[in-house]
Amino acid sequence: MVKLTVKKRVQAGAFFIVVAGVGLLWAYRTPLQDWWKMRGYTPPAAVVQLANDDTMNAYTRHLFYLNRPRLLSNVTAFRSYCPEDKRTIVLGCYHPGQNGIFIYAVHDASLAGIQQVTAAHEVLHAVYARLSGSARARLDSELQAFYAHGLTNTNVKAEVALYKQTEPNSVYDEMSCTFGTELTQLPPDLTAYYAQYFSNRQKIVGYESQYRAQFVTKQQQIDSYDAQLSGMKQQIDEQQASLTAESVSLNEQKTQLQRLSTAQQISAYDAVAASYNRLVDTYNAGIAQLQQRVAAYNQLVSVRNGIAGQLTTLDSAIDTRVPSKLSP
After folding, report:
1. Torsion, CA 252, CA 256, CA 261, CA 262, rounded to 10
2. Architecture, CATH, for domain 213-317
3. For the chain, which has fewer Cβ within 10 Å, the N-terminal or C-terminal residue?
């Protein structure tokens, strides 16, 4: 009996230890999984620099490195990891389950900061994925309240509208990433949320403003030049019409002078000749002025097209769209 009792106690104790061990493993499964995935990984210098530039704190940096970010400059290679709608420009993507962050490497110096914004956006997906159910519900409510009553940025509104069409099940997730990286002013609750992950979120927003200004400024310049060119074109057209009418009048007077000369009507000829010469002088002055206006117009067109070419270059630098294959 004694031996049997002892045996039962040993089995019960062993069972308790096994259960406790399984419970501990379950409780610490995420740190253990992270440790396993991070073993032997040393983030490349470019990845560390992105984390530094974005002022990621230790937890955010951990999630960033856990996803082993890759910067890819080849569109085909990048799109093989980020196969979202290939007709849309995509600069980064996050694979759920800590399966990777991929960033399109933009090398145009005038677009400095775009990779930092993309990195911050994508790591916020990883942050959102690890929120508890209650924390996520609270954040979603705060995001929706701001979107409905406080958001005024038209670009961000357009982005959210696009997400509602393309990713209807991930709108709050995308809101959390977009608001945190693109908006300077946020309500206190959202400001506090992002402060948990970045020591200086305004630096990220600064990168966003910096590179976006390259597009906005050039487009504004083009629009301004187009308005000037439209006014100049109208003046040129009106002057050309006026000169055409003057040319008709000159030809009529020239014909009249020829008749008067043939008829030997000297006094009449002299009177018409004086009027004709005045009209010729006016016409020639108009031609000279028109030529100046055309030259100024062409010069402005050249400047305008130069800026348009710069804008096209910027567009090309971030264009990750994949051309559709034509059917034979």
Report:
1. 110
2. Orthogonal Bundle (1.10)
3. C
